[in-house]
Each structure stands twice: as structure tokens, then as C-alpha cells.
Amino acid sequence: MRTRLTGWGRTAGSLAELTAPSTEEAVAVALRAPAVIARGLGRSYGDAAQVGGGLVVDNAGLNAIGPISADGLVTLGAGVSIEDLLTVSIPQGWFVPVTPGTRQVSIGGAVAADVHGKNHHVDGSFARHVRAMRLVTPTGVHTLSPEVEPALFWATFGAMGLTGIVSEVTLQLLAIASDQVLVDTDRYDDLDEVMAAMVEGDDRYRYSVAWVDCMARGRRMGRSILTRGDHAPADANDPTRHAPHAARLAVPITAPPGLLNPATITAFNELWFRAAPRHRVAEAQSIGSFFHPLDGLRDWNRLYGPRGFVQYQFAVPDDGAEAVTDAIARLSQSRVPSFLAVLKRFGAGDPAPLSFPQPGWTLALDLPVGPAKLAPLLDELDELVIAARGRVYLAKDSRLSPRTVRAMYPRLGEFAALADTIDPERHLTSDLARRLRLREG
Amino acid sequence: MENAFGQPQTIVVLGGTSDIARAVLKKLCSARAHHVVLAGRNQALLDEAAAEARDYGATTTHTVLFDATEPLDAARAVSDCFAAMGEPVDLVIEAVGLLGKQLEYEDDPTMAATMSIVNYAWPVAALAEVRRRLVAQGHGRILVMSSVAAIRVRRSSYLYSGAKAGLDRLSDGLADSLEGTGVTLQILRPGFVRSKMTTGEPEIPFTTGVNEVAENVVRGLAGSTRVIWSPPILRYVFFALRHLPGPIWRKVADR
């Protein structure tokens, strides 16, 4: 039976056969299909985990969670979600070293996208914490680490599944003494202020992220809420540590088109901004509400209506910071509705040819599909990003072109040549790979 | 692969020298289309259209020859187009059409048959092959060029309009058959369009140029409406015309 698959943005779907192997041998068999790609929990926004007319390998069957060693090492099946892992690890005093804005990502997906979190400026992206992993390719199974086959190890991070199917990952966890995070919150009236505060003070915090109102115009353009914090010390009164609970609310149906429009989003942003304190120090928040605020509402992507939405996330080096200001100014002027723009500083990147993070800034925007001016506006932003020597995140992308992706990822040729050594017949492909010609170098 | 905004990257045009198809192609090539296969009966005109597509941003073009009076050759023509593409096809534009000379043809059984073969039988055969291949891909779009003339057939063009009416109705059912396959079909119903096909024909109200039609097509492809009207107001105009009593319709239509 074929299944229609889309990314989290619910755009550009395609039909494929779906299989969920539970052993490496079964994964190897699946890789004989002429067109095949792995899929985790489907949280990539675009077309990375789908391949029209081909075979999609759901990693949910690879769900073993090994014991956590005294120094925090754990070996996990690639289909284990961060939520599953936290349920086990938080009571034992361990946290994932890197978490994106949702717990609903599989470990295999976290490798494929080389996910980053609010601590990238300190701890780097997911790859930095992986000690070893097993990768099933069309030509055999590889056990990889930074020391063993380092080229294939690094090439797998950020490659969106195009080097093979990860079956198992050994991860270094982070010790925590409590299930709370102590958070400092500050409100800023414009973008320059918040960016200056982040440059000056982010180093004092493990976690830091700013929310920017892209609908505000004029003097208030780019007004922001900056939240920064770290894990709290042990609570003497309540030493037990609780994992975040699963979502209790869900969006039951796809919203009618246009529910999220400039008027409703401007109103939402206004409320969000006003609800934040101007300055507050050391507020205790749960891990769930600090790291994964949207996980409280299942299927929230349905709010964007039948046409779905795109997320545009780019990174630029510090000397290209003007691209951030420029992008927000163009969005604000165009009145294209966008909310929950997230601004963050990146620390050092890793040696992975297709990994997204690079030192400097990253900005992520959620944009409903609909306004005719959106496609050309994002094409303009691509040029800004390229001129600043930056790049767009493939895990979010659903609209780059073969030309722009080559300007953003100059090591794509090197990557494609390596991929050909482990998959000379090019079984591994996806709608994303076809759209951007990622296997062609 | 098509992107999140419904902008195709790989396009096959059956009837690749049609002025409307060329205008649509120009717009799609300036957005994302980079690989185009044009099929038609005149190599020189196909080459010209292919050069135009490259001027507007296509990086690779191919041409395929066929004769629309031979519907049993349609599957071969479509296969050649897909083979020339060599990668999944995002959009197939079915733009084969012959307006012909109604007054000369209407008492000529051979020409009457030819009109229905070119405007109906060949496209139907081609669409069957296109359907099979796109469904196998698990994604893709089809744009069928119909006409507002299909909604109420005029005396002055019934050979053309009647065949288009058949194609239009058939396409509606074909589109229904594609539910759940990942493939969608949209029907384009332009009004009177100034083009080489209509040179010398008298202009009527709501006449547009090919660029305006292309604009409406691009907007329509970004959405999911079954029928793309151009100009959009014709949807309402033809709703009214369709229900006019015969005697009044004849006065209006043959004015």
C-alpha cells in the first residue's frame, strides 16, 4: 500500500511504499529498492524524508534503548525519539546534550539533520556528542566514529539520510541535577538592542534564544524577547526528576485557509510580546516549557490550513549580520505574515560537509503558503544569504533551487563524490535530493 | 521536484509550440523550471520554443516529434518525452489543439473526423499514458488546455468546441480518478486569446493576451482549484451563458 507523505510543513506531498524494519538485516534488504530514503518522525519541514514512487524506511522499529553508563553514555536505536529517551534518562539525572524545539524527533533524524538547540553557541550541534554510530549503506554496514572512517562519519551529519540508514547511535548525555531550568527573560524594543545583548552576554548562559516580532513596523521593528538559562541545581525539597509528559491537547482538524493571516498573527505577536516581562531573573521553568513549548499542542502544523507552511531558516557569519536585519526589514515591509521568528547565535560548526550551523547568527521564520509575493520574497532572501556567505537549513527547506544550494554549500561536490563510493548506483535519494540534485554534486 | 509553492522544475509540453503553452513556460522557467521537453509536429517551431525556454532560465531542453492525427502513436510520443526527461516529471501540459475552419469543414466528413481526432482522441490517448506514468511516480501535475467554448458550444466553432467539450468533461472525470494518487489534474478554460491560432478571428468581450492567461495559470498551479478560468470573471459569465434559452444564446453567440 502506498502512503502519501509530506514534511511537517504539509506541502508538496508524494506517494511511496512504506516499510518499518526492526533489524539491520531488514534495513539492508530495504536498501535494494531503486529509490529509498529513511524517515523518522517527519519533523523536517520540507521533502527530505519522502521519495515519490520509491521506498520510505520508517525507523520506528529500531527502538532499543540501552543502559546509561556511569559517565552518561547510552546506545540507542535510531528510531528512539528524544521524548522516549528523556522519559528514561531524566529520572536518572541525564539530559540530551542537544535538543531541537521539539522532543518529537528520532535519534536518526537528529543525526540526519545534525540538529542544534538553544546551546549551540556553547555545545555545538548533535554531531559533537555522538561517540559512535552504525550506518547501513547499499554496499554494507559501517561502524563509524570520529576516529573510525571519519569522512563517512562526518558526511552523515546534515546529509538528510543520503549516506544511508542509521541503525544505532552511541550518545554522550549531559548530567543534570534537577528537572527545572532557571531562566532570565529580557524584552527589547528593537533588533539592534537584542543582538548587542546576545553578543555581549550569551557566553554566560548554556541556553539562549530570542523571539522576534517580524510583524512590528517602524520604530518597533524587530522588537524581541530574549530568554536565557541553564539547568537548575538540585532541589533539596523534591529530589525526584520528572520527564516532560506527552501532549494533552491536539489540533483535531486542518484549519480553514487563511486562519493565520496578517491580522491574526499581528494580534498573536502583540499578546506574546506583552505577556513577557521586561526583565525577570532566575525564573524556574520545566524542561518541557523551556525547550519544547509547541510540544504541548499535537499536530499544530494543521493550524496553517490546507496549503501548509514553509519554514525559512538561514545562518550567516558575524560579518554578515546585516542579512538578519535586512531580512526582518523586508518581511516587515512586505506584510507577509510570519510568526515565531527565532533568532540565535551559533558557535563553532563541525567538520561535516552538509551540516548547517556555522559561527554567527541564525534566524528561523514560519510562513504560511498563500501570498503570491512569498515565493519571490524568499528568492530575494536567498540572494542576501548567499551574498553574506551564509546558508539555508536543508531540514527546513522546501523551495531552494539546485543553483542556490550549491552557492550555500560549497562542499556539496565533495559530499556527492563520497556518497557515490558507498552507493554507486544511487539508491539513496529523496524528493529533496531530486529537487536540489544533491547526489549530482 | 515541485517545491512548496507549486513551482515545477521539470515540465513536458504536448503541443509545445502553442502560444499559450509558451507563455506559461516562460513564467515557469523564470521561477524554477530548469528541464523542459517540448513535443509537437514542427521541428523548427519546437526548436524556437526550446530556445525561448532556455532564454528564460531552462538549463536543459529536448524536443520530440509526433503527429496528432495518429492517436495510436500518442503513447509512443509520451514515452519518448519521459525518456528524454530521465527524471521524475513535475508537470505535463496538454496543449494540442486545432481550431480549423469550421465553415469549410462542417460538411466534410474527413475533416470533421480530423478535428475530433486532433482535439479529442489524441489528447485522450496521451493522457492515458501520462496518467499511468505520473501515478507510478507518486506525484505530478497535469494541466489540460480546454476552452470556455467547451462550456456552451457555438454554432460557429462546433467542431473545435465540441471536441474540447468532450476533453473538458473527460478531464474532470480523470481528475477524480487521481484522488489519492499524489497526482493532480487542472483544467484551463481560457476565453478568447489573441494568438497565432486565432489570427483573423473576430475578437469578442473578455479577450486577453497569452501573458494574462499565463499569469492566471501560474496562480492556479500554486493553488489546487480544479478549473483555472482566464480571465477569472469568465467563470461567472459562462455560468450565466450556459443557462440562456437557446434562441437568446444563438443571438448572443453568433453576433
What's a quick, concise take on this entry?
The complex is a heterodimer of chains A (441) and B (255). Chain A has helices at 24-30, 82-89, 107-113, 120-123, 150-156, 191-201, 262-275, 287-291, 322-334, 374-387, 402-408, 412-422, 431-436; strands at residues 2-5, 14-19, 36-39, 55-58, 73-77, 94-95, 130-137, 140-144, 165-172, 174-175, 180-188, 207-212, 224-231, 249-250, 279-286, 297-298, 309-316, 339-346, 360-368, 391-392. Chain A has 441 residues and is an alpha+beta fold.
Structure description:
- The complex is a heterodimer of chains A (441) and B (255).
- Chain A is of the alpha+beta class and 441 residues long.
- Helix content of chain A is 26%, strand content 25%.
- Chain A has a domain at 180-400: 2-Layer Sandwich (Alpha-Beta Plaits), CATH 3.30.70.2520.
- Chain A has 13 helices and 20 strands.
- Chain A is globular and about 60 Å long.
- The two termini of chain A are 33 Å apart.
- The model of chain A has no long low-confidence stretch (mean pLDDT 95).
- In chain B, the strands form two sheets. Chain B has a seven-stranded parallel beta sheet with strand order 3-2-1-4-5-6-9, with helices on both faces. A two-stranded parallel ribbon of chain B has the order 7-8.
- In chain B, β5, α6 (158-177) and β6 form a beta-alpha-beta unit.
- In chain B, α1 packs parallel to α2 (43-55) and α5 (109-137) packs parallel to α6.
- Chain B is an alpha/beta fold.
- Chain B has helices spanning 19-31, 43-55, 74-85, 102-105, 109-137, 158-177, 210-222, 234-242, 246-253; strands at residues 10-14, 35-40, 60-65, 91-94, 140-145, 183-190, 193-194, 208-209, 227-230.
- The relative contact order of chain B is 0.13.
- The chains are: A alpha+beta (441), B alpha/beta (255).
- The interface between A and B is medium-sized, with 30 and 24 residues.
